[in-house]
Amino acid sequence: MNLKELAEHLSLSPTTVSRALNGFPEVGEKTRARVVKAAEQHGYRPNSNARRLATGRTGAVGVVFPVERNALVDPHFLEFLAGVSETLGPQGLDILMSPTTADREIDTYDRLMHEGSVGGILVSGADTHDRRIEHLAAHPFPFVAHGRTGVARPYAYLDIDNEGAFRQATSLLLDLGHQRIGLINGVAHRNYSQDRRSGYLAALAERGLTADPALEAFVPMTVEQGYSSAVRLLEMSWPPTALLCGSTLIALGVFQALAERGLEPGRNVSVIAHDDGLPAVRADLMAKPLTVTRSSIRAAGARAASMLLARIAGTPVEALQEVWPVDLIVRASTGPAPLAGGPSRKSAAAGN
Amino acid sequence: MNLKELAEHLSLSPTTVSRALNGFPEVGEKTRARVVKAAEQHGYRPNSNARRLATGRTGAVGVVFPVERNALVDPHFLEFLAGVSETLGPQGLDILMSPTTADREIDTYDRLMHEGSVGGILVSGADTHDRRIEHLAAHPFPFVAHGRTGVARPYAYLDIDNEGAFRQATSLLLDLGHQRIGLINGVAHRNYSQDRRSGYLAALAERGLTADPALEAFVPMTVEQGYSSAVRLLEMSWPPTALLCGSTLIALGVFQALAERGLEPGRNVSVIAHDDGLPAVRADLMAKPLTVTRSSIRAAGARAASMLLARIAGTPVEALQEVWPVDLIVRASTGPAPLAGGPSRKSAAAGN
DNA sequence: AGCGTCTTTCAAAGCGCTTTGAGAACTGCA
DNA sequence: TGCAGTTCTCAAAGCGCTTTGAAAGACGCT
């Protein structure tokens, strides 16, 4: 059943029916009631393609989804999408996910921009130098980036203070007397990994310490990578007494490595992780409640989506740039550095 | 730049330009080359809404995404989507995700069916009695369900043999001498949870054993739920010597609980989990490589998507019903039942 | 030259909706 | 009763594309 048929059925013109259904003021109340009732009875739904074509409003925002066979898809990404959905759902807007492979990624963004199926684009997970954002920023098409990157033109973004978060976390560990602190970070090309590293280095530098590159790892955020990185660090001849983790998934792997060695988090080795608030991995409910720097990635998704809507509505990019502070939540996985006799050998005061 | 403008620019009719671009045979090669080149130069992209309206082809399949604030979003769902993308991407098709809340879910499916923005729908995670599938099956609109459910009308589905998988897994444990076997299952309303339970019960029954309901847990598939369920089971006065887990995430929590108690998987307590192949949680790379029943949920997504395309193309539902066998992969987390002295007390031969 | 046969191009209709501009129909007032 | 002012309804154009049906042009043949 389409508009024309419904109109004929009611002996009205399509114009009137359309207006009645869309709540325009120039249609009589009795007429409107009649129309609405008939529409419901016949299960009439306006064809969204026709409507989009006529109005120019797309009713959707775009997200590109890079997937190759066997590639790691990130649970953080889904949680971000959930946040996006929280703001889009009530407005009746959809998310158009365009699958792509790494080599065709820019192309896919280009298609999304030009084919008119979405009103704006969200890009999540910014690289230190992000080609996608650079490409998008070169066009007037609305988009919002989750994370910042080093490109020349201004663009709308929402980021969290990763640098501050890890500076704070590192400082806490230093205050507790830890001198050798490992950093199991995310992959190196992500901007947040670099920001966290900067925070870590800054905190060390504040105390006149310099970092030992051997204590740093850049790995995908998975349990196994956390596990194997922790094993590597713990088996060093002069192992760290504290570990900073880029994600709670990594911390999970770290906990496994510690348990296996009879080491207790917070007593023998302190652990802090960044917690994006993944509901499947709750830091507060872990066997040993985890000290974290916390910022809900879902909330970020929700906010990024509403920023995008504002951008589509015409708000200038300069008014759409936010950096959120990050909370440091201290729980049981952190404690004073073991005074003597670290995990496997003397932790001899280090000054480097 | 739209088609008409491009046509004017080339001094051709829109017809010819459209045909040239879409590879129709009735346009000369020199003309086609000219058109293609001009289109590229001007960055022309056909407006997808207009194209959809004209052709009736939507270029997208729909997925509804139930999200409420604080609801658990499932990493398995994302992995399924990744699979879907694998088949859709190369064809240039998109995924339209419609956010919804639980109370408006059926409505959202209805909208998707009727507004014409997608050519078909994928529904993942079937309940034992699934209202969504029931609703969809009552209409001629193409859809494919991931998982089976108890509804009257026939519909297209792709499922795995959960019953067989857990029957096999349970049998293995029984062969190894285990008599008290715990089951940390997914949530009870999911069909796969019930199928797995059936397999578990069937294997016990084959040996003349009856199940102890106290050994069963139905919980969301998260690390913490795995942990707390394991703790509960292990602290029973007559604890199980083996645990079946509905997911590797659950197994991760179980490992934590075991480690905490100085118990070794495969020696003191055997553990088998169902492994959906989440790349973030690799069973084979765990501290103690995990014995699993394995079936890639990503592969399922890929297949479900191509089944949907077939359905859209007109294949009857009866030809689109698949149940995949599941592999049992034995690794180090399973071993013979401890002969005497279980985890915390005698495991006294049970016959029940 | 004249004719049929391909090949190449086009004008126009149509997809289902929204929206403009205008005409009926109805109101209240003098 | 006549007229301006509302209220309600409509015909028609247009969104940007595809596709049908037909015409024009090119070609080889007798």
Tags for this entry?
disordered C terminus, DNA-binding, homodimer, six-stranded parallel sheet, six-stranded mixed sheet, 352 residues, 12 helices
Describe the protein's architecture and organization.
2 copies of one chain form a homodimer. Chain A has 352 residues and is of the alpha/beta class. Chain A contains 12 helices and 12 strands. Chain A has helices spanning 3-10, 14-21, 29-41, 48-55, 75-88, 105-114, 131-137, 162-175, 191-206, 223-234, 248-260, 297-312; strands spanning 60-66, 94-100, 121-124, 143-146, 156-160, 181-185, 216-218, 242-245, 270-275, 291-294, 321-324, 327-329. In chain A, the strands form 2 sheets. In chain A, strands 2-1-3-4-5-11 form a 6-stranded parallel beta sheet, with helices on both faces. Chain A has a 6-stranded mixed beta sheet with strand order 7-6-8-9-10-12, with helices on both faces. In chain A, strand 8 (242-245), helix 11 and strand 9 form a beta-alpha-beta unit. In chain A, helix 1 (3-10) crosses helix 2 (14-21) and helix 10 (223-234) crosses helix 11. Chain A is elongated. The N and C termini of chain A lie far apart (77 Å). Strand 2 (94-100) of chain A pairs antiparallel with strand 2 (94-100) of chain B. Chain A binds a DNA duplex (30 and 30 nucleotides) through helix 2 and helix 4.
